[in-house]
Design goal:
CATH class of chain A: Mainly Alpha
Structural class of chain B: alpha/beta
Oligomer: heterodimer
Shape of chain A: globular
Distance between the termini of chain A: 51 Å
CATH class of one domain in chain B: Alpha Beta
Number of helices of chain B: 13
Order of helices and strands of chain A: HHHHHHHEEHHHHHHHH
Largest interface: A-B, 48 and 53 residues
Radius of gyration of chain B: 21 Å
Largest sheet of chain A: 2 strands, antiparallel
Strand order of the largest sheet of chain A: 1-2
Distance between the termini of chain B: 41 Å
Helix content of chain A: 55-70%
Radius of gyration of chain A: 22 Å
CATH topology of chain A: Ammonium transporter fold
Helix content of chain B: 25-40%
Strand content of chain B: 15-25%
CATH architecture of one domain in chain B: 3-Layer(aba) Sandwich
Shape of chain B: globular
Chain lengths: 356, 440
Amino acid sequence: MSRPPDTSKGPKPPKAAPVREAAEAFVLARETPTLAAPHARDPLDVKRVMFIVVAALMPCAIAGWYLFGLRVLAMIAVSYAAGGLVEVIVALVRKQEINEGFLVTGLLLPLTLPPGLPLWMVAAGSAFGSLVGKELFGGTGRNLFNPALVGRVFLSLAYPAAMSGHWIKPLCAFPGRLAQYAGTALPEALTGATPLLQAKEGHWSLVSAGSLFWGNVPGSAGETCVPAILLGAALLLITGVANWRTMVASLAGFAALALAMDVLRPGAFAPAYWQLPAGGLLLGVVFMATDPVTGPITNGGKWVYGVLIGAVTVVIRDFTGYREGVMFAILLGNIVAPLLDEIILGLRVRRRRNEP
Amino acid sequence: MLFGRYGTFAGGINLPDEKKATLGSPIRACPKPSRLLVPLAGEGVPSAQCCVTPGQRVQAGERIAERGEGQGVNVYAPLAGRVGGLTMASVIGAAGFFRAPAIELTDVSDPPELPAAEATVDHRTASAQTLRELLEGSDVLTHRRWPRPLRWWVRQGRQHECTTLIVNAMENQPRVTADHRLLVERGPQVIAGASILARAVGVKTAMLAVDGRRTGDYRALVAPAREAGIQLMALSHKYPIGVDAILVKVLARREVPLGSNPMRLGCVIIDAATAMAAWQELSCQSRLGGRVVTLAGEGLAEAGNFFVPFGTPCLELARSPGGFTVHGGPMVGSRCPADAVVTAATDVLLALGARPSRPSTSCIRCGWCTDNCPARLNVSALNDHFELGALDAARSAGVIACVECGICTYVCPSRLPLSQRTKGLKHALSRSRRGGGEPT
């Protein structure tokens, strides 16, 4: 790769050169002109997009490791291995390059699973998500549903007992569970109840909103620590990789319906301020609803899509037998996303035709 | 207020400007070319008939080919030299370069500076009819992306009863500074030319649209513009405001109807270089025989703005070792073939270091192309239509509104050649429409 000499900034210190080159390769590099028109390109390509999403998931993964122990890292490794195996086989059969997309899926799936889940189940979920959720549809960019969520749905339908029982109690005091392998080796850490389960039984007030915010509650590996999710969200929004409209609309839809429930049937359900940091809502809204492949393309569509996801989450949490609704809400959103685009664009073209 | 300010438009992006290298460099005479290949035809301009014989010496400004039928123009020698013979050269057209007949001139004289001629005729009092007759007899081409005779342009403007003339000096592709230098160095002449054109078409309002960041350089325009009754407009530099349809949308607050052109909204659009050429022809009764071209790029020893005679081979002006030369700017330009020559459309030549674009992957539906499309098209859906060959679906998605700005390819993280495909769909549609005999 030959780059033209950069004359605008003068010589750069040679010491930092390796670091700078590594950084350039991922985030900073300006593009050299391309042979095909137009002869300038935006440096942000799929590789960098995926890298930024993985980087944004890092705080969640580290928080999960801190709170729930080394098992979380083992789950991520197993998920990458199983999903990667599927990807390699598919790439060999199709004679294509291996897609970077699975770096995100393979990391996202374990973060949505109970940290005490048997590792072979993680492997099964990851392989299922990659194969059925993505590759059978034609690979990256052609899938209708978020592959990580397809994997999770598979697990929660195939192993309902394991998916609702293998929670681990978090350890907030330093050094947390950084060096512990909780699970079968540490049976006293296992628990069967999450805050949303308690809320279903009407005992939401047992858990304070503060501990929900900081992550001092049992839950899926990456979903409990709200500050870590917010850090990732900030990175996604600053780089423009995720669309702010989807996030804002989802939270607005959720807050609106949850507040309406507070007013209409006070005391029947957990209040909105409590439900917001509970469960997988924020993780799902930040990292899964904003998945560009499965969401709508138009901005109008993104607003409707987001509101729909937020509202359906409340409905499922409050009125169905399921404790957690985000997963199904996003999958439902995935189904209507192409329809939303179709409607919005139809309106746009019609408006254009009516102009003089 | 010296400069009127206006709003902007939906879509579009802020490109890196990259004009610093040539922004302050004054217009100079270009280095002497080894030969000229003066094209006799253009897109929609039928070939002129050669009226010189090989071996004959010609003077600068001497007629070397006679106007053909209809839209043809006379062709004059840009420099003195010896006629080498009739050959072919590549000139730019609507769909890229195509080959046209050309007269080769060898042993050419040194190219001149951009002439600073004094007006010999004052047209400020001439009637519109007189101006039209003068333009009707002139051989000026519009200096737009595909040049047409100026007299055709005036006739079109009259036919559509246009009420607004917009001089488009936005020049908002990166690295292009030719019109900027022309406004800085020959501003009053450009204004005088614009006012001639405004009166010839018979418009009520005339505007000069410039980049809002450069108004400080254009102070000398203010007094002549006020005298000539031309409004100065300083606009946002968001790309692609320099595209006619978008500029009209910003200034007239109306969308150009699908498959139509700005004249339907009563706006005629011209550029600064044409206004200058019209002034030179009518007021000085001499021909420019060339135009200001920005030469830039990493492959060039000396970047700058040059007055280049028509017919100069592009690769002699800007050749980068191991690279390639782009005609017409980084976003909408095309790669120069070996025999490409400078025509009225050439505003910039870039000598760039080569690197093939990375292979494209499949669409991840991020929607950036759709977000940034100034024509508000769903480019990713059009990409699907292209892959499926669904021309009708593309038509109902409004692909005909595409302004060919290149933003979709620029932003695409999967490196899909989106603008190429959209352009392909659009041209296929307009071809089939023409073939079907439907009224446009």
